[in-house]
Amino acid sequence: MTQTVKYLKDYTAPTHLVPKTDLLFEINEQYTDVWATLHIEPQNGATELVLQGDVKLISIKKNDETLPETAYSLNPNDETLVLPNMPTEPFTLTIHTQVEPQKNKSFNGLYESEGNLYTQCEPEGFRKITFHPDRPDVMGEFTTEIRANADKFPVLLSNGNKIRSGSLNDGRHFAVWHDPFVKPTYLFALVAGDLALTSDFFITQSGRRVVIEFYTRQADAHQVAFAIESLKNSMKWDETRFGLEYDLDIYMVVAVGDFNMGAMENKGLNIFNTKYVLADSQTATDADFEGVEAVIAHEYFHNWTGNRVTCRDWFQLSLKEGLTVFRDQEFSGDRASRAVRRIENVKLLRTHQFAEDASPMAHPVRPASYVEMNNFYTMTVYEKGAEVVRMYHTFLGEEGFQRGMKLYFERHDGQAVTCDDFRAAMADANGFDFEQFALWYSQAGTPTLQISGSLKKNGGNLDYVLRVKQILPDTPDMPASQKQAMMMPLAIALFNENGEKGAFKLPNDDNSYNETILIVNQAEQEFVLREVQQSVTPSLLRGFSAPVHLQFDYTNEQLALLLAHDDDEFARWEAGQTLLRRAIFANETALQQGNDLPQNPLLIQALRNILNDNNLDAAFKAMLLQVPAEAELWGERDHINPVQTTMAREALLDEIAHALHGELLATALNARESENADKRGKEIAFYEYNPKDAGLRALQYACFPLIHRFDEAATIEQVFEHYDEMARKNMTHEWGVLSSINSNASAKRDELLARFAAKFDHQALVMDKYFSLIACSRRADTLVQAQAALNHPRFALDNPNKVRALIGTFARNVPHFHALDGSGYAFVAQHIKKIDAFNPQVAAGLARAFNLLKRIEPQRQALMRAELEAIVALPSLSKDVREIVEKILA
Ligand code: 0A1
Ligand code: ZN
């Protein structure tokens, strides 16, 4: 496979359209035969037809006449089939190919998992099934016939509606599916196997009845109820908030244990990683339930934002993903705990997307080039893309945003379009100028806003002047000097010394405000807030109104004031996070210089007030107690010593655990009491997921690790004695208890984990939790335990969930991945090489762990580099891993 770079600027319209594709799948023991009939419409007299394919070709017919091999050429290097002399009038090609799903461990194309067959076609998996233009701007109607042994494959599914089915000779049967909506190949899906069906239905706003069908293994069927409820909630929500109704008569979801990503929005036939379908309170944590709800919603919302209106080319991926993530975030926020959900999203973005933006993998929300598209399902495209959509919403408000959505669908339903088309719809529907805003799609890197504020006399009044400077970083694709100032909303308010929001006026406007949204659109600018009070503490970037770093010279006292009083939960949380970050940085400096660690009485008092505040929502209180993780602390720093960051962070955790032991204990006990209050004498089943109890549990397990830290010996003893009672209520408690003591060095911890593994031996998703506990422990023997876990009978290197649970988690375990002897790097690198041989997509995901290379201190940098150089030296390396590793090394 040659390493060819594809560029956005090289886009050309398709030379041939394929308005209809008829497929026939003959599923046999070892292999599956596929006949694809493409109804082809040449454009502008084109005669050379290029089809994409990475599959064994048997024969080709043109209008029913078999083509000699001299009529075409196959180029495995760039996965093309070139037919130079095709008619300029419409014609059909019938292509016979053969695939071996049992041998496919890449989980792209047609593959086998536990005896059943599944497809994954986004972005370029269809070409592993048959030859086709296989690009999203070639859309057509699909009819799919599947034939297979009726005992082994009683269930035969594809997109759309089942129009025929029946029996054939030799114990075989067939089903024919027709999808009336035009779609690109990447939304094609097929499932064949022995699966349990759970059905339900939904009545749409216009009164149509939609059949809902969930397919799982027999043994898992009892775990789909929550996902089905989530789907119905999503269908309802999209009608009420976006006015969007489902369009087919049936919506199917199939769960599979072998899947590279979370889930896939194939038209009418979603295929899901079991992790995002199966959930009951004995096996799934509250966070897992929230994950199921969000991913079910995400895939459902794609039916309009992705399927009805799709992407012109893969550079536009964020058109569907950024928008759909924004929609699923809004759905989750409307369901419950909006502020906490928002903070979780920001935390995710800042931990992983900011790191990506500061790495050699940095790319704009709309990348300008790629080698392997699978590498661009990134935090930038998804999460930063969602922030970009959120900024339209912030500028336009809900009504204006919905006007834009309406125009977008009016203009583009049934089309494959670009991010610019979306921006134009938002602009045109509102008469709002989004010209400059386009820079968010082309400039990579996280902007920094440097803000300062000062009071100025103005006659008898006081003005508060905010000076805002935006700094754009260099990124590998573009130096800062070539970047232009971006446009973004900056939400602000002013607080006085009593923590009250103060009124102000804007220039040329005599209304009084107590918050506003400033439009930042220049490299440096000044905003004057008139008639303010004597003491001002600004609350900035409220709600995280733009995806940027913020610098403002707050005093610790000002931060404590905002933490105590800000009515914007994000800004309030952020004030606390800034205090925590400052304390960790001070510890790092002290460690570097060999000084005593500083104490943080103001921070401790602020946390004490939070713990003692009975009016705070439990889930929000739990968020306020989260100490930023290492990856959130590195920002854009260089010469990172990861283990020193860990030590500095742990020292702060020790300080908090000791200073606030009594308050932490009381808070945890109170939360437990509140959770139990309405359940006395009731069944354990009463401890199922609901947002209120989830918040109370989150608070208990925000406190418990700190309680354990205060006195490890006593706590592990207590957990060991009372484990069954503590853990039996549900998986959130079981997981919470184990996570809290997971770094305990005693044999009791090992014994508890072993009991956990034995108890859930046959629950694959819970075994993933076991492997991730092994891999995230900060105990000294974690690498040894992770290596041993590779031989556990339930571990499988070819299962992506298992790989992510054990090796992926290990790669995020800062002190162990970055061990100074290089053992952590070697462990991860060794498995990248092994996995790359059969699943390049998952291997490339692991390779991103080395992203920090250039920003890490020299000793570790050399160790990392040696591993990466050994990887790129492999002659058979996939283009997936090669693209990532070469960028990191460049
Ligand atoms: N479109 C899916 C994500 C997805 C992408 C690629 C896949 O396999 C290569 C699978 C799923 C989503 O956003 O949910
Ligand atoms: Zn998506």
TrEMBL record:
Transmembrane feature ranges: none
InterPro entries: Aminopeptidase_N-like_N, Aminopeptidase_N-like_N_sf, PepN_Ig-like_sf, Peptidase_M1, Peptidase_M1_dom, Peptidase_M1_pepN, Peptidase_M1_pepN_C, Peptidase_M1_pepN_C_sf
EC numbers on record: 3.4.11.2
Keywords for this protein: Aminopeptidase, Hydrolase, Metal-binding, Metalloprotease, Protease, Zinc
Domain Aminopeptidase N-like N-terminal: from-to ranges: 42-187
UniProt cofactor(s): Zn(2+)
Entry GO MF terms: alanyl aminopeptidase activity; metallopeptidase activity; zinc ion binding
Domain Peptidase M1 alanyl aminopeptidase Ig-like fold: 445-552
GO biological process, one term: proteolysis
UniProt catalytic activity: Release of an N-terminal amino acid, Xaa-|-Yaa- from a peptide, amide or arylamide. Xaa is preferably Ala, but may be most amino acids including Pro (slow action). When a terminal hydrophobic residue is followed by a prolyl residue, the two may be released as an intact Xaa-Pro dipeptide
NCBIfam families, sorted: pepN_proteo
Name by which UniProt lists this protein: Aminopeptidase N
Organism phylogeny: Bacteria, Pseudomonadati, Pseudomonadota, Betaproteobacteria, Neisseriales
